[in-house]
Amino acid sequence: MSKSVFQYSAFKQIIFIYVKICSSRIIKINKQKNIMFDLKVLQSTLDQIEQEKNIPRDKILEAIEHSLAAAYKKDYGAKGQIIRAHFNPETGDLEFFQVKTVVDDTLVKPALTEEQLADPNFEEEVDEDDERVRFNVEHHMYLEDARRIRGGAALEDEIIFPLDNPLEDNEEFGRVAAMTAKQVIMQKLREAEKDIKLARYEKMVGTVLTGTIQKVVDGKVFVELAPRTIGVVDRKDQPKGEWYKPGDRIKVFLESVEPGTRGVRMTLSRTNPEIIRELFKTESPEVATGIVEIKSIAREAGARTKMAVYSNDPDVDPIGACVGQRGSRINAVTSDLGNEKIDIIVWSEDELLYVANALAPAQVLDIEGDLEDKKAKVIVAEDQLSLAIGKEGQNARLAARLTGWKIDISGTDENPDLVNELETEETEDEFVSLDDLKSAIGKATNENSEIEEENPETEEDSKTE
After folding, report:
1. What distance in Å separates the CA atoms of residue 22 and residue 113, rounded to the nearest whole number?
2. CA-CA distance, 261 to 25, in Å (whole number)?
3. Number of C-beta neighbours around residue 316 at 10 A
4. Residue 455's pLDDT band (boundaries 50, 70, 90)?
5. Per DSSP, what are the bridge partners of residue 134?
6. What span, in angstroms and rounded, lies between the C-alpha atoms of 258 and 261?
7. What is the chain's mean pLDDT, rounded?
8. CA neighbours within 13 Å on the CB side: how many for 74?
């Protein structure tokens, strides 16, 4: 038997047992032989639902009690009554109660008179500023009357009155009552399952989940994260150029979780920059433990990402920790993102150096910046200019977004003075003038002479040695 069939049969079993409860086949005053058998079936069914649907036993029993109360009210209750039921699955005992709330004139309006109720032309005046409800004898009790029953009663307390159990007299709930109760128990179990699912996935917001693409409808991708748990990737959260095929495995970023009309609505994303951080946490232990920090991420989903990293341990290379041996770690991340390109640069406290690093793979010759306005003027070689700007300005745009700086990039043709300075520095580094060479030879000769004077050595001493 498949898991889904097993769950469905378990759900039907609890409805079946409920119907048996309503038809007094379990709960009777006299001890019959089939009582223990039915109670054992009930216990096993409760265990089955608790395991398969992850619904706590107390929630399941609460749903049963709500359904029994609904059935009682349908057949035996009065309009406006608040009925509660208590069912003991160990003994099979079932009790019904009516609940009234303690009120006074500050909480309720006076009840309508018999003449007002009998008058077909009577229209009740509506006061928008008065939020009080009309007194109903079936679920309200004035404070004075409540204190005659319980001396310490206070406003909004509940006074409970036991009711006769019709099942003790071998009576049964009617068909309509049974159908009402069936709907109630199904609704309560769905609500319990939704609350548990909501609490579980609320803790996972901001993390990466793996699911299976179920279907694609009107541009929306429906991803099954667990049995009967579906998340949606809207069109705006999909990278350009990505294709989705039902049945494929996919990693998604959980952005938000909220209750919906048919369960829990989960908003998923493939474009959120934080998906990069979470994927590297799964691939790199250094990132997961905080040894290597991802300081900033700039992303154009589906095309390219720039990421600034910093190592809290001087012995750990932050870029190497993210790239991995032979690129194994970064390749795993890019494969999850549809082979999106990822540039990793080293973050620096020196903001100008950080800006220069952010323009990688282009090499910066010179940079000037305004620290207050966060504006930088960068000069690169002419053959590096297109690399620094990138295709359609992508590299410069991502660098600006990564650092938070406005970056003006120019080539050496627009800065001839800088070119002359650089050429002079290179010439001075590569060539030595004749005067400097003579000076260095003379200095070396003088140093050798001084050493010989300090350590005189005769020809005989040399021969002796």
Report:
1. 38
2. 36
3. 12
4. low
5. 109
6. 10
7. 79
8. 20
What tokens were used for 410? 């120019």
H helices present in 337-410, as ranges:
351-358, 382-389, 394-403
Which DSSP symbol is given to 111? P
Identify the residue whose tokens are 């310490």.
152
Alpha-carbon gap, residue 288 to 294, rounded angstroms: 10
Worst-scoring range by mean pLDDT, 154-168, 172-186, 273-287, 353-367? 172-186
**pLDDT value of residue 446:** 61
pLDDT at position 260 over 90:
no
d(CA 421, CA 350): 24
What proportion of the chain, given as a percentage, has pLDDT over 70?
79
β-strand 249-260 against 263-269: which pairing, if any?
A: antiparallel
**Crossing angle, helix 3-22 and helix 33-53, to 10 degrees?**
140
Q: Where are the alpha helices (DSSP H) in 284-327?
A: 285-289, 318-323
What span, in angstroms and rounded, lies between the C-alpha atoms of 34 and 258? 45
Residue 162, token pair as written in the block: 């036991």
Predicted local confidence at residue 30, as pLDDT: 38
CA distances from 236 to 221, 232, 271, 272, 446 (A): 11, 11, 8, 10, 79
Q: Which token pair is 74?
A: 């349908």
Task: Spell out a b/e string for 258-282, using b for 16 or more CB atoms within 10 Å of the CB, else e.
Answer: eeeeebbebbbbbbbbbbbbbbbbb
Give the C-alpha separation, 214 to 218, whole Å: 14
In terms of DSSP H, where are the helices of 175-238? 175-202
Query: Residue 25: pLDDT band by 50, 70, 90 thresholds?
Result: very low
Residue 378's H or E segment, with its range, is strand 375-380
How far is C-alpha 339 from the geometric centre of its chain's CA atoms? 24
- In DSSP terms, 161 is beta-bridged to 98
Instruction: Quick: pLDDT tens for 294-319.
Output: 999 999 998 999 999 999 999 999 99
pLDDT grade for 277, boundaries at 50, 70 and 90: very high
Spatial separation of the C-alpha atoms in residues 323 and 283, rounded to whole Å: 10
Letter for the amino acid at 8?
A: Y
Q: Which among 316, 273, 276 is positioned nearest to 292, based on CA atoms?
A: 316
Q: Tell me the CA distances in angstroms from 45 to 48, 53, 179, 185, 311, one per residue in order.
A: 5, 12, 20, 14, 55
List, in order, residues 6 or more apart from 65 with CB less than 8 Å away: 84, 85, 86, 87
Please tell me the distance from the alpha carbon of residue 104 to that of residue 17, in angstroms, as a whole number.
42
